[in-house]
Write a structure and sequence with these properties.
There is one protein chain. 39% of the residues lie in helices and 18% in strands. By secondary structure, the protein is α/β, with parallel strands linked by helices. It folds into two domains: 59 residues, Multidrug-efflux Transporter Regulator, Chain: A, Domain 2, CATH 1.10.1660.10; 120 residues, Rossmann fold (3-Layer(aba) Sandwich), CATH 3.40.50. A five-stranded parallel beta sheet has the order 5-4-6-7-8.
């Protein structure tokens, strides 16, 4: 087993299940919950084994154990990428972010692992955001990916253009990060308002 894999203590599991840690130890000793022991003799349970146990007993799975939503930030301006990623770091329990610098790289990354949301600059080298949108919305695997377009340009990137490219929202630079995070939460059906500051 790789030690980098997320594991949980008996106290963590007791909190998730609303029981005493001693109950979790009983589950482990009775063979109901798989675990391993650290060199210090403490029980640790992998996420996979914990999820299997919760599902078997029909215990609701806590939000902390659910897979986080994946957000891909695509912009050729490194500072914009950094600022957006930092805003989402405040809600990292619910989302994970990845970044890339142009449309071609974005499509390669999306082909490897489909994100739930793409925050996409419309004006980039190699392939602009409009082209990326068209590709995503024309493929069955990716047509359901939510897209927030961002731009520093004035119209012609109007609501009409937004509708044509099938993006879910359009934000103009300089970005209102609170609104961007809130809109992302709305599209992902997650409450991302906690802890976000301008």
């Amino acid at each position: 087993m790789e030690m980098t894999e997320k594991t949980y203590t008996t106290h963590d599991i007791a909190t998730f299940c609303g029981v005493y840690p001693s109950s979790v130890v009983h589950w482990i000793n009775d063979g109901k919950l798989k675990s391993y022991q650290t060199p210090g003799g403490h029980h640790r349970v992998t996420k996979e084994d914990l999820l299997a146990f919760l599902r078997e007993l029909k215990i609701p799975i806590p939000r902390e154990l659910m897979s986080r939503a994946r957000i891909l930030i695509v912009d050729d301006d490194a500072e914009v990428v950094r600022v957006i990623a930092r805003a989402f770091s405040r809600v990292s329990a619910l989302v994970e972010t990845d970044t890339c610098r142009d449309g071609v790289e974005a499509l390669i990354r999306i082909g490897q692992e489909t994100p739930d949301l793409v925050i996409l600059d419309l004006v980039m080298p190699k392939m602009d955001g409009l082209q990326v949108c068209r590709v995503l919305k024309s493929t069955e695997k990716t047509w359901g990916v939510k897209i927030i377009a961002i731009t520093g340009k004035k119209p012609p990137y109007s609501d009409k253009k937004l509708s044509e490219m099938k993006a879910d929202a359009l934000f103009r630079k300089p970005l209102d990060l609170v609104e961007l995070v809130n809109k992302s939460g709305e599209l992902l059906k997650l409450n991302l308002t906690m802890g976000v500051k301008k």
